[in-house]
Write a structure and sequence with these properties.
Elements (H helix, E strand, L loop, with lengths): L3 H6 L9 E3 L2 H12 L17 E5 L4 E6 L2 E2 L7 E2 L5
Antiparallel strand pairs: 1-2, 2-3, 3-4, 3-5
Length: 85
């Protein structure tokens, strides 16, 4: 679990929008897309490992993964939540 005090100050490094802990339903949906090999990172690379948790940007378009209780706030590794066309 991410420290709540840290969560209060974290923002998207790209847009500076606030981020919030993603709910388990979204993580399940994204993990299903990982199994289907249809989920991409912002740098265009496919995501192959299941997500443990993540921080969802306020606009709902991008999720920053949390690995080993550490938010990965790197723009290239951000998960594109919206369905790619």
């Amino acid at each position: 679990m991410v420290d709540l005090e840290l969560l209060k100050i974290l923002v998207c490094p790209e847009t500076k929008e606030p981020v919030a802990l993603a709910d388990s339903a979204l993580i399940e949906q994204l993990n299903a897309r990982i199994q289907e090999q249809t989920l991409l990172r912002k740098d265009g690379k496919p995501i192959t490992a299941p997500l443990e948790s993540g921080l969802l940007r306020a606009d709902g378009k991008v999720l920053y993964p949390i690995r080993d209780n550490i938010p990965v706030m790197l723009i290239p590794e951000a998960v594109l939540v919206e369905t790619q066309t």
